[in-house]
Amino acid sequence: MQSDTATKFSHIKPADTEFKSGGLRDFFLYRDLGVADATGGKVIAHLVRANMAPEAGTGWHRHEAEFQIVIMTKGWAKFMYEDKVTLVEAGDVVHQRPGIRHFLFDYSPDMEYLEIVSPADFKTVDVEAVCDTPSPTPWK
């Protein structure tokens, strides 16, 4: 059984934290959900929201992480996972296996997703393109 001091109880309400820039991508906004602090850096959970129209996307990359899950809460996003286009819509859940090469190249103006990753200080590594990537849909 885990010790009571290994993690802390956390309860974050929408008014407790706000969406901010300064995360991994400048075209997204991030809302910290307090999980990294509560778990001593074992896990991070944040909401990610579209902030600007997709132009170049995230580029091809992979994460050095033990676990990563994306739960689309609003809108949609199109990813390349290896050489496959994957449309992720509100309600969809994606488990990104460790090291999978991917590229988020298109998303709706209302896109928002919950991302949970372990460890909290995971690294992102740029990789060579796996294949050609479709163009994003222009926002109106």
UniProtKB/TrEMBL annotation:
This is Cupin type-2 domain-containing protein. Pfam families: Cupin_2. InterPro entries: Cupin_2, RmlC-like_jellyroll, RmlC_Cupin_sf. Residues 50-103 form the Cupin type-2 domain. It comes from the Bacteria. The lineage of its organism: Bacteria, Pseudomonadati, Pseudomonadota, Betaproteobacteria, Burkholderiales.
